[in-house]
Design brief:
alpha/beta; 5-stranded mixed sheet; 318 residues; single chain
């Protein structure tokens, strides 16, 4: 899935929470399961059955056998079953899983509720589509090109009360980051799936892009890039370079974040979002860290103590 070179900086909008602090302190990122995305059409391609039922059967058989074999092999490794009998058993069960499903498809295709010319091909296409999605067990860490997008701050930055993490992309990571394309079709050609299973890298690229790298045109304002990796919390392969605070981010949050990262061995730059006077635009400005640290942390009784000397003077008056 080779694509465009990532920009110098990519941004992750976040609300402020204990999870955000934990990620900053431990330098981790979270690769989300695509099934949890807020857009139900995201990573949900539709299979275009441009091949016949026989070819679809072969495709589905191969996909089921491959998946079942991988799942059973992982289970066998867990319980340390690795002998030849185990391997034969896995091969046999993988074939049986495919045969059972194909038998179910053939039987279901005789149901009169399917008012179409070839219900068998339709059902095969549905199962191939389902198996295709199960192949993509990776997680996604989404980032944006800009730190000054008002909609992004509203939708992902806790309505401008949160912060935005700015990352640079080390050269060894750039091959795992991909740019989203917006609009167009959600269709994946079944012929491409067959070619991908046969080893075609060009077909694999087209299938991967259709599954992972396409969104509706309405989301184009995000200018999204995706880092693909193992699902869940992982050590960050990116380099945290800057933190941008939203327009409504409380000074106490800004102070807490700055103090949290004060001893980091690679310094981080701090910015805040300001409005551009008279325009519907936002701009990034450097945070005056010394001024913030001069104001905080605050001790209320310090104000009272400042007048202690005056009380002593008053007591000395005749």
């Amino acid at each position: 899935m080779a694509g465009p070179t990532p920009p110098k900086r990519l941004y992750k909008y976040r609300s402020f929470s204990d999870l955000t602090v934990g990620a900053l302190v431990h330098d981790t990122i979270y690769y989300a399961d695509p099934a949890t995305f807020n857009d139900p059409l995201d990573t949900k391609p539709v299979l275009d059955t441009d091949i016949g039922a026989e070819a679809l059967e072969g495709c589905l058989t191969q996909m089921i056998e491959t998946r079942t074999h991988a799942e059973m092999s992982a289970a066998a490794n867990t319980i340390r079953y690795r002998g030849p009998k185990t391997l034969e058993h896995i091969d046999r069960q993988s074939r049986k899983a495919a045969e059972r499903l194909l038998a179910d498809v053939r039987y279901s295709a005789t149901n009169p509720i399917y008012e179409m010319d070839d219900p068998k091909q339709f059902l095969l296409g549905q199962y191939v589509q389902e198996e295709l999605l199960q192949r993509y067990g990776k997680g996604v860490f989404s980032m944006a090109e800009r730190a000054n997008c008002p909609l992004m701050w509203s939708h992902y930055g806790d309505q401008h009360r949160g912060l935005c993490l700015g990352f640079s992309v080390p050269p060894e990571v750039s091959g795992d980051i991909y740019k989203i394309s917006y609009g167009g079709s959600r269709l994946v050609q079944a012929s491409d799936v067959v070619a991908m299973l046969a080893g075609s890298e060009e077909a694999r690229r087209r299938v991967d892009e259709a599954v992972l790298l396409k969104k509706a045109q309405s989301w184009a304002y995000e200018r999204e890039w995706r880092l693909i990796g193992p699902r869940g919390e992982q050590n960050s392969p990116l380099e945290l370079e800057e933190i941008v605070f939203g327009m409504r981010c409380p000074p106490t949050v800004m102070y807490a974040v700055i103090q949290t990262l004060e001893k980091r061995d690679r310094p981080v730059r701090f910015f805040e979002i300001r409005e551009q006077w008279g325009r519907f635009l936002l701009a990034k400005r450097s945070v005056d860290v010394s001024e913030l640290q001069a104001m905080l942390p605050r001790r209320h009784r310090s104000l009272d103590c400042a007048f202690d000397d005056l009380d002593d003077l008053d007591a000395d008056r005749p």
